Amino acid sequence: MNTFGLTAHTDRPLIKETAERILRWSEKNGVNCRICDDLAASVGHSDLAVPREDIWKMCDVIITLGGDGSMLASARIFGMYGIPIVGINLGKLGFLTEVAQNQIEEDLSRLKENKFKIEERMVLEAFMPQEKKSRPALNDVVIDHGEQIRLAMFDLFSNDEFVCPYDADGIVIATPTGSTAYSLSAGGPIITPVMEAIAVSPITPHTLALRTIIFPAQNVLTIRSGSIDMTLRVALDGQIVGSLERGDEVTIKKADYKVKLIKFETKSFYEILRTKLHWGARPLFNS
Fold it and tell me: CA torsion angle for 135, 141, 145, 150 (degrees, to 10)?
């Protein structure tokens, strides 16, 4: 790879320092860099600035500085174009970001030498009733009651067949990538991220009989609001994008493209589970 494109959550600490490290390494190793215009303004490299919507046309890889939220934003903006994305973790958990701060130069060398693999991740598309276009979500679609402190009512359909009603605080429709995010907090299962499936989990349901349902990725799901005198909110990857009144529907299906995430051979998904989520850790007992 000969040209890197840099994007970032510009409010993160260490943005300027990290961008400068990448630029110094790139100059030393003969790699070209292009920088999204908002990041270029923050780090003082207007000569390398490119409009965010065009940067994917001018580089071989998108390098995102920030946390998981920054990676989700890059996936929404660039994923449909098939360009590989890799994240440098400047956040906390960093489940989607591949590169730690103490490995930046080492992993940049791997990028230059094409010593990596690409994982293709399933994406969801949500069709809102008031919009004429769909919106993508790499992690999840969440519909909930917002700031109202009472149960919301939903009806779930799969391929136009009625599945069940939900009385709950909300509902999470997650991809395998999103199974370790909000869906996990709602009691959903962990799904290996390269699989194709859709997990539907209620948030604090009113009855113990309601549990997560796993659907084939090819199914088209519809969530209909059954709430009286209540406006529900709709969020994609944590970003509120719309609202539902009684009888309104959101249709959710697998997108016709996948997001390409760069992964290095240094750690597996299961290692990330063990180290970042402390998955399977045994409690310590006093002897």
Answer: 160
